[in-house]
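Q: Entry one of two.
A:
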Amino acid sequence: MDGLLIIDKPAGLTSHDVVAKVRRITGEKSVGHLGTLDPMATGVLPLVLGRFTRLAQFYNDADKRYQGVIRFGLATDTYDAEGDPAGPEQRVNLNEQQVRSAASRFVGRLQQLPPPFSAKKLGGVPAYKLARKGQSVELQPKEVEVKEFEITGWDGACARFTAWVSSGTYLRTLADDLGQDLGPGAHLSELKRTAVREFLLENAHSLDDLAAAVSANSLDDLFLHPRLILPEFPAVTAPPEALARLKHGAAVNLPEFSKALTVRVFGGQRELLAIARRVAGTLFQPKVVLVGS
């Protein structure tokens, strides 16, 4: 069972929980995700099944888009609504323009410190496990890029926002930093991921949708069309004489793509055979083969 499936992750489940449920529902053992979502968060969680797990290497640095809510006046130890208060609740005396102006200062390349309650590892141990035991967590800052951080609504205590960020950016940290910058503290109270690069919320399915499709033997209808995957690479339909060589990982000639460095090779409209890289001239070597020999 090979394909890419976009799940609309419900709140309360870890990304690993979703992967485990998809394995049980589909019966496919080889399932992976393309970017972790915190349990509180909802939205786009792309999953690769079967041989398509080999595509994960192309999404290590995928940009992501979000929408959510930041609540001011209360900071928490996890930087989100699931944590314990980090201090007494504070009075919020801010207007929308102040919040918008402060948010704009966090756009660009930043040195961001991951939350102490995160999956970042210290000596091989996830930071959240150490934090739960009350042990000191000293994480190192990491450079991230916030390409967009826009306040879209304000009710006097909570700010709605949209964000477009690089891989590895913590929206929880962004909320906590904004609260510290403005004074009264803040935490992330809601978060929905709306896109992971080319994977959009409008193409996502619920776990119930998945179970119904499996029962109706129509799972293929839920898989994202392969032509929509990795659109930055040109697509070429392999000539019949090249199919056998591709399936065995052998280099093939693709004359019409002499200038492309990497291409997606299809057999017909839907069968993604391989991701191939140019060796020299019109000769392409499969980097990832997605069909059996």
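Q: Entry two of two.
A:
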Amino acid sequence: MRHLYLDYNATTPIAPSVQQTLLPFLAEHFGNPSSSHALGRAAHEALEDARGHVASLLGTGPDEVVFTGGGTESNNLALKGVAFSRGTSAGGHLVITAVEHPSVVQPARFLERLGYDVTVVPVTSQGVVQPEAIARALRPDTLLVSVMLANNETGAIQPLKHIADLCHAEHVPLHTDASQAVGKIRVQVDELGVDLLTIAGHKMYAPKGVGALYVRQGVALEPALHGAGHEAGLRAGTENVAYIAALGAAAALAGKSLDASQERLLSLRDRLLNLLREGAGEKLTVHSESAPRLPNTLSISFPRATGHELLARIPELCASTGSACHSQTPSMSPTLAAMGVSSEVARGTIRLSLGWYTTADEIDRAASLLLGAWEAVRS
């Protein structure tokens, strides 16, 4: 069966050139980057080259990039690191939004169990948080605000610069989970005004199991892992040089192709939507259609059908009924629930996310298969 992959928001394939960067560090260049001999120095050089590539993509300095084991670890380090930097029993207040990824929600809930207060700010029907709602949630004891840059399900992009200005006026740092945005759209930390920013390698054509956290100078974090002081003391443990080198290569690749990739993906996404609307009319619901969105993401609901039913009839189509984290569960995703989407519309939702290797022929084929499955289910 020839698979038709439209699930790039769940994970991306490793880019061929990224794989070629990775492989030598699994064999001949196996040195520990903390060692002073030739093999160790080569590994250390690769580590710092990768740090420079990630920093360049974000518009920051290499000393503000901390490598982690992925987006989940970066989010945990940001939230717990800020909270615990004042002592584990100090308490305080955090603000998140109703559409955050579980790797932000669950650390916040963990901190809540320890006695911290957590405010969850709602979003509009388009899945966008209103900056004024964040401002109203701030308190004198607010330690951190965390707002994702782009939603993994709908692609909705949040107004981070406005939010950052409001937070900084109250001397509150802002963290953003940018896992879905980095490599797809321009992400510059100073333009956004954020103090902490999460990257996940496997969302940007690097392997699973590697990520990074941007930490603005002056932001105090307690490490999640304690040990020999790797990564400026914020992430102990011998670095995964092969995967970090791959992440650096992916960052360099993304930086070179960002504008052209955005334009191409937006054209393909709109082509897909137009084809689906030609076949189904205006009965389709496009989630966050009126919001600024990622150019590759289309979250759409078919009436009188469920997403699971449709995808079950098209085994060659790799797509999701929501985020990959929720696609195996029958309950409505928290994102759609927060947007006030009805249960009927939520049940018919499929997320189609495009990537570097998506072709126009695949878009046409996907539209045909989806419309055919929808007609079969309706009849």
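A: Comment on entry two: The first helix runs from residue 16 to 22. The mean pLDDT is 95.
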